[in-house]
Structures are given as C-alpha cells and as structure tokens.
Design a protein that fits this description.
Elements (H helix, E strand, L loop, with lengths): L8 H23 L10 E7 L2 E7 L3 E6 L2 E4 L6 H7 L30 E5 L6 E5 L1 H4 L4 H10 L3 H14 L8 E5 L4
Length: 184
C-alpha cells in the first residue's frame, strides 16, 4: 500500500494493517466457496506519541468514558446509521428498524476498503472500550457507562460487560477490550 504523505507514520501503519487484513479476508473468500461472502468488522487503537489513534471499519465500536460521560467515538458503517444520518429514520424508530444488522462497509466485502481514522487526545483516567455489536447492540449506553464507571478492574469490567450483554439476550458474538490511561 502506498504511504499517504499527509498522514503520520503510525496512521499509515494502522491503515495499511487494516487494508491488508481486508485483502486477506477477501482473497480467502474468493478462493474457498464455503467462505464466499465472509466478512468482519474491526476497531483498533494505538496509544502512541501522546494520542490515541483509532482505526475502524464496520459496526464494531470504540467508546470513551471521560469524567463519567460515555461517548461513542466511532461511527457505525451500517444501513441503520445511514438512514439516521439522512434523516429518513428518527432515533426513536431505530430500535424497530428491520435491517439494523446490515453493514455497508466491512472487511472482506471488496478487494479494498476505506478505513476511518480518528485521533483522540487522551486525558488521565480516560477509559476506552473497544467492542463488537454483540455488546453495543445489547447493552444500552447508560448501562454501559454505569458499569464502566463503577468497576476499576479492567478484566472484571470486561467480564461484567459480557455478562450484561448475555443477560440482555446475547444474540451476537461479544468481544470487549478495555484500556485506561493511568499515571506511571
């Protein structure tokens, strides 16, 4: 992949890694008939040079809990989100939208993929939650914020978030990684 001279080194590394993963998935799906149509989503973060560099494709998400406020940092690449952005669907109607699991951008769908990059300026005690829609689709943001704000142990927090998603029905694969910026 060509280096984008408008981006810093680590941004190019992130984009290239995700694009390479996309190409590998796409080629595997093309080679094996039982894998045809296979794809996945990705959210990744690198803590480097005083920033958090976030790369993402699909509807896996990165949230940041700062001063008790949970913020979704990534934007879903889904049909549902597209309809909401185009104002064809209100936020209230989103819960009953029949195609909420339709992804419009994912790894493996095409030989190349556009990767969203976000650069965040972290503060001490910021908590980052990287997760699949198995968590974000099952656990409402206020409940996620409450759990994240009440559990200081990151391993236990991941376990509690997964348990909450399962308690709400656990309808999809649940993957969670948590990271917090702490003083040395």
């Amino acid at each position: 992949y060509k280096i984008d001279r408008n981006h810093r080194y680590h941004t190019n590394r992130m984009v290239s890694a995700i694009k390479l993963a996309n190409l590998e998935i796409h080629q595997e799906a093309e080679r094996k008939t039982d894998c045809h149509g296979m794809g996945t989503t990705v959210v990744a973060a690198i803590f480097v040079d005083g920033v958090v560099l976030i790369g993402h494709v699909g509807d896996s998400r990165l949230y940041r809990l700062r001063d008790g406020r949970l913020e979704q940092m990534t934007e879903d690449h889904s049909l549902l989100n597209d309809y909401v952005k185009m104002k064809r669907l209100s936020a209230g109607d989103a819960a009953s939208f029949p195609h909420k699991n339709v992804i419009v951008r994912a790894l493996g769908m095409k030989p190349s993929v556009e990767v969203d990059i976000i650069v965040d300026q972290p503060r001490l005690n910021d908590l980052y939650i990287l997760c699949t829609d198995g968590l974000s689709g099952m656990v409402p943001d206020p409940e996620m914020a409450e759990l994240a704000g009440s559990e200081p142990d990151l391993d236990k927090l991941c376990e509690r978030l997964i348990a909450a998603a399962n308690a709400h029905g656990g309808l999809d694969n649940i993957t969670v990684v948590c990271a917090r910026l702490e003083p040395l």
